[in-house]
Amino acid sequence: MCQVDEEYNEQLEKRTVPSVSQRCVKCKEGTAALIIRAGDAFCRGCFKDYFVHKFRAMLGKNRLIFPGERVLLAVSGGQASSSMLAQVQEGLSRNAPKKLRFTPGIIYIDEGGACGQSMEEREGVIAELETMFRATGYPFHIVHLEQVFDLPISVLEAVSSAPQRPEGSYKAAVEQFVQNARVKGSCSPGEGHMDPAVLDAQIQLSHLDTQDLANGTPPSSLQHQQDLERLFASVRTLTAKEDMLQTLRQHLIVHTARTKGYTKVMMGDSCSRLAVKLLSNISLGRGASLAVDTGFSDQRYGDVIIVRPMRDYSSKEIAFYNRMFGVPSIFIPGLDTKAPEKASIQHLTESFVTMLQADFPSTVSTIYRTSEKLHTARPPHSSEMETVAKCLLCLCALDTKEAEEASAFHATLVSERLSEKRVPESAQVGSASTADTVGQCCSSGVGQEGGCSSRGQGCCSSNLTPVTPDLKSLLCYSCRLTIKDMTGVESLPPYIVSEAERRHRRSQMKKEISEFLLDDEEDEVAAS
Amino acid sequence: MPILCSSCGQKRAVLKRPKTGHSLCKECFFWAFEEEVHQTIVSAHLFNPGETVGIGASGGKDSTVLAHVLKVLNERYNYGLKLLLLSVDEGITGYRDDSLETVKRNQQQYELPLKIVSYEELYGWTMDAIVKQVGLKNNCTFCGVFRRQALDRGAMMLNVDKICTGHNADDVAETVLMNVLRGDIARLRRCTAISTASEGEGVVPRCKPLKYAYEKEIVLYAYFKKLDYFSTECIYSPNAYRGYARAFLKDLESVRPSAIMDVIHSGENLSVREGVRMPVQGNCTRCGYISSQALCKSCVLLEGLNRGLPRLGIGKHHRLHGKILAQEPLTQEEERKLKAIDF
Ligand SMILES: [Zn+2]
Ligand SMILES: [Zn+2]
Ligand SMILES: [Zn+2]
Ligand SMILES: [Zn+2]
């Protein structure tokens, strides 16, 4: 389909020739400016060609982004996502040989409120990014993490995807697009040449103000700032904090994409980043969702598809490119900046992979290749999205069926049951309302899965008003671990709590009418 | 102030369970530990009444605890199993001698029959002799391959229906991590299976009843039960890459104690893309043992040792299998490559 791909293969073969002369291995003329791996010496020009080509090849190979489609670029200000932004600019520029044909916008999530940054620091960062974004000419959205407290319940519903495009429609869409462009004589980004299929859904939205309401204003209300502080204070471990932040960030991005009329989101995960993510997700019990979490495309949200076009680049290549071609990026401290190595699973994994990579240079690429052999979750073709039980927080398929067969999940439940009171006496439950017992139960920490929230009438929830919903039965294995590391779930944003209550009401309803239902396959909520 | 047992609420707690964080008294811990193994056995349908089960006994903590718990459970729940101990003598002076003494004491304490099969009688080589020829770098490859087959052969001599090994949760989690690091998708998919069915001629089905037991709890169990075990690591160094995975898992556990189970849960729920090629299992044309090549790993290693070409079984030399089978001599060039071994 793409001749550029063939050139690329040729280039790959040549790259194996060791370069002793420090000449570029590609053109054999230019002086080598950098060496990516042993023997891969490139001159400046060829490195740029190679780098730029790789981006287009990744998009070309996967054929997911349609001409004229509105694509939201998630830019954190870091090296990889800034480089992704530069690649999009490069690909959309007028003289690009194989022009990209989508319409980009940018989103930045300001997480300063969770990472302990002062208001001045946050404003400084935002001002710097705004300058960077404005220079691109693309619409951009600055969203503060505090805004999760305003999110609607609908974020947690995976919307069934827009009318399924038939096979082969990609090619037709490209031809159509090129024809339209010829008629109009130009096709610069932002003019919004819509694919007819997406036009309907987006026409009203594309006329909306391109700038988010919050742009330039101080990060949301004081109330929400306190809400956010309270939320993160209630999470006891850095591991769970990082996971929570990731979840909330993702919700904000998807919500913004939906409300602003974007159908794809591009994330800047590099191959190095994905290798760390794969290994830490395994350690976090997210094995069932590895393919969606680390693959090229992530279709869990249905109508908004996440793509990761930077996944073939190592962080080293990106750093080289950015330095050589002056791609701006800024360092923003995160949750685990300056944290000791063993502060969280994610942080520990990153140090481990970095250490191993130094000893065994193929570590990252080997782990990354593992991710490619994993099953990509079946795309949500089924219009009945409700039939598949999905995790309340990460929206992945639930991996917590309480089956009788041996499994780590089952074994953990058995261990907990056997370590607790063998014969629960009714008197004990009554006495559990004393502050002492409550404190003990909730703070005893790790492993008390059955102790706190599962039994509805457990020690914590019994004296809380209003009654906190039991989230556990609505969560996947890994998200349960995160919630378990929280002192309570009252501080969660309202949309999560309301959706949990709604799902419980639904399952309650279903229980009541169960004898009249003919199809018992429709398990909306996993058995609690 | 003494902490009370969270299970019975009466006796003083003597330990904090590494797996769940609960404080338990000795009796409640024993009960919980044994019940969990029982639950594993029942829910995974590991045994059938009347079966002869060989316990792979090394004299180490895992197999010692396994033997003890299986004997207890077999009586408590009338599994109706005929249990026996199966040991492999690798021929490592100072290491195996001592641990085999432990196994022999276990045999008397638990009144279980014991069968010892030695590398020397099966292959004509002791590990000491192998190390002399191959050095310390690749000796674990030999030992691992030979041990696997030795257990099978011992089991067949005794008409054993199933072999159980002392692999614990830490071992399984570590193997998951190691296979991710090595990109070994075929093993990654297999390594969390609690039991392997008979895969062919000469292979006895295996299972891991301690799959969900934490190593630390196994030590606690052995400690409070005052079980006798031999605790020295193999004197010939372990696999370096596994060492990294092990260290990483220990760190993960210290950050979040459930991490061991979480890794296993991940491994159990991975779905491998269809169309990823998995090696086809066949049988070794020389000894009949399962093998994806014409010759099984063990026969190739043995051939290398006997011909004085130790590298034969270490690299990928499938091309040479035909020559070996036909008993043909190798070319000088081939010999030169296979002889060189770095100590
Ligand atoms: Zn060049
Ligand atoms: Zn989840
Ligand atoms: Zn007790
Ligand atoms: Zn063989």
Round the mean pLDDT of chain B to the nearest integer and report it: 85
Instruction: Determine the most extensive contact between two protein chains.
Output: A-B, 58 and 55 residues
Chain oligomer state: heterodimer
Largest sheet of chain B: 6 strands, mixed
Helix fraction of chain A, binned, reads: 40-55%
Helix percentage range of chain B: 40-55%
Q: In total, how many beta strands of chain B?
A: 10
Give the biggest sheet of chain A.
6 strands, mixed
Structural class of chain A: mainly alpha
- How much strand of chain B? 5-15%
3D structure, described in words:
The complex is a heterodimer of chains A (528) and B (343). In chain A, 45% of the residues lie in helices and 6% in strands. Chain A has 20 helices and eight strands. Chain B is α/β, with parallel strands linked by helices and 343 residues long. Chain B has helices spanning 26-43, 61-76, 96-110, 119-123, 127-134, 139-157, 169-182, 185-190, 215-224, 240-255, 259-269, 297-307, 321-325, 332-339, and strands at residues 15-16, 23-24, 52-56, 82-89, 114-118, 162-164, 195-196, 206-207, 282-283, 290-291. In chain B, helix 2 packs across helix 9 (215-224), helix 7 (169-182) packs across helix 10 and helix 7 crosses helix 11 (259-269). Chains A and B meet through helix 9, helix 12, helix 13, helix 14 and helix 19 of A and helix 1, helix 7, helix 10 and helix 11 of B. The complex binds zinc ion (4 copies). Chain B: Residues 282-312 form the Cytoplasmic tRNA 2-thiolation protein 1 C-terminal domain. Chain B: It is found in: Cytoplasm. Chain B: ATP binds at residues 56-58, 62, 88, 166, 171. Chain B: This is Cytoplasmic tRNA 2-thiolation protein 1.
